[in-house]
Amino acid sequence: MTVADSTLQHRVDIGGGAAGLADRAGVLERRVHRIVKPRIQEEQCGFRPGRGTVDQLYTLSRVFKGAWEFAQPVHMCFVDLQKAPCHSQRIPHRTPLWGILRKYGVSGPLIQAVRSLYDRCQSLVPIAGNDVVLLASSARDLERSLDRFAAACEAAGMKISTSKSEAMVLNRKKVECLLRVKEEILPQVEEFKYLGVLFTSEGRMEQEIGRRILATSAVMWTLHRSVVVKRELSQKAKLSIYRSIFVPTLTYGHEFWVMTERTRSRVQAAEMSFLRRVAGLSLRDRVRSSAIREELGVEPLLLRVEWSQMRWLGHLVRMPSL
User: Fold this and answer.
1) Angle formed by the axes of helices 206-223 and 261-278, to 10°?
2) Can you tell which superkingdom this protein's organism belongs to (predicted)?
3) Which residues contact 164 (CB under 8 A, 6 or more apart)?
4) Distance from the CA of 215 to the CA of which of 171, 182, 193, 246 falls in 20 to 30 A?
5) What is the chain's mean pLDDT, rounded?
6) Average pLDDT of the segment spanning 155-167
7) What is the pLDDT of residue 62?
8) Measuring CA to CA, which residue among 163, 27, 28 is closest to residue 83?
9) Whole-angstrom Cα distance, residue 242 to residue 126?
10) Which residue in 139, 161, 159, 162 sits closest to 151, CA to CA?
């Protein structure tokens, strides 16, 4: 056997070992998932099928809408965890993970099998989190929830960032909410961007929709000279940019939009502002929006939003009753 053959054989052996480890981890993950899935609480979204950021955003928007409609105050704390510095990103606190698995009903032998994947193994994992919001009907109850959450975080080797965590009160009247973490008072705000969507203390989404439209305007002007008016680029390429950048920026979080006539008009105006430039037209040309869409082969954005909202409604209907 030559040196080259030996090197190749060594590489194959390493590849086979890595593949075997991945297969083993996959088998263990599926076994744990079958046990844990029925016990996962509804507020846990992400890292599980059928639950994502839109579920979190929709739930919070419904809380805002209902509380505002029935004049019920809601005290909330948007929690952000401290990001660990690069030199201290080693995670020695795996012990709480095994206790959590036991609480979820995972047996000892299966836990030992999972632990074996981490024996003599070090990981560099950034500790961060900004998707936690605590809700309560009073400042006192919220303070208690925050204290319990902070204690649980410390037990797992994490800390709340007092500079980035903020308090907000949804109420028809301005109410002060003093929250403390380690004797540090968290700032109280009138609006907060949660998972990319702006929520305000007035409980309305019009400001978020306006922010979306402004964001798409910024995108359009950024692309105007470099992309949209470039004759070297085909309409197909420009429409690809429209679908991949412009539309997601404008419609993020649209599942829980209330489609009033004003909202529909604003969304359509933003849409046609981009499409007219792609078609090489302006308002002075007096070409109907329907004709421009037909020429470009683009369906109305409002229609896509309505279809997506209907799909979201189907997702809600299929969810199991609590």
Assistant:
1) 0
2) Eukaryota
3) 80, 130
4) 171
5) 84
6) 88
7) 92
8) 163
9) 34
10) 159
CA 264, CA 305: separation in Å to the nearest integer?
10
CA angle, 218 then 223 then 227, to 5°: 165
State residue 204's pLDDT score: 84
Token pair listed for 294: 């037909």
How is residue 242 written in tokens?
A: 């429209």
Tell me which residue of 36, 151, 146 sits closest to 101, measured CA to CA. Answer: 36
> What is the tally of helices (H) and strands (E) in the chain?
11, 7
> Among 20-24, 40-44, 140-144, 313-317, which stretch is predicted with the lowest mean pLDDT?
20-24
Confidence of residue 84 (pLDDT cuts 50, 70, 90): low
Closest by alpha carbon to 308, among 42, 46, 54, 47? 54
- Rg for the chain, CA atoms, rounded: 26
Sheet containing 166-170: order of strands? 129-136, 74-81, 166-170
Q: Which residue has the higher pLDDT, 291 or 238?
A: 291
What the block records as the tokens of 305 is 């939003």
- For residue 212, count other CB atoms closer than 10 A to its CB: 23
> Is the pLDDT higher at 310 or at 86?
310
Asked if the model's pLDDT at residue 165 lies above 90, the reply is yes
What angle (nearest 5°) sits at the alpha carbon of residue 243, between those of residues 198 and 224?
A: 85
Residues 233, 241 contacting (CB under 8 angstroms): no
C-alpha atoms less than 13 angstroms from C-alpha of 227 in its C-beta half-sphere: 18
pLDDT bin (cut points 50, 70, 90) of residue 265 is very high
Cα of 321 vs its chain's centroid, Å? 24
Q: Please give the model's pTM, rounded to 2 decimal places.
A: 0.79
Report the DSSP beta bridge partners of residue 310: none
DSSP class of residue 63 equals H
Phi and psi at 135, nearest 5°, equal -120, 145
Q: Say if CB 98 and CB 115 are below 8 A apart.
A: yes
3-state SS, residue 254? helix
3-state DSSP assignment of residue 95: helix
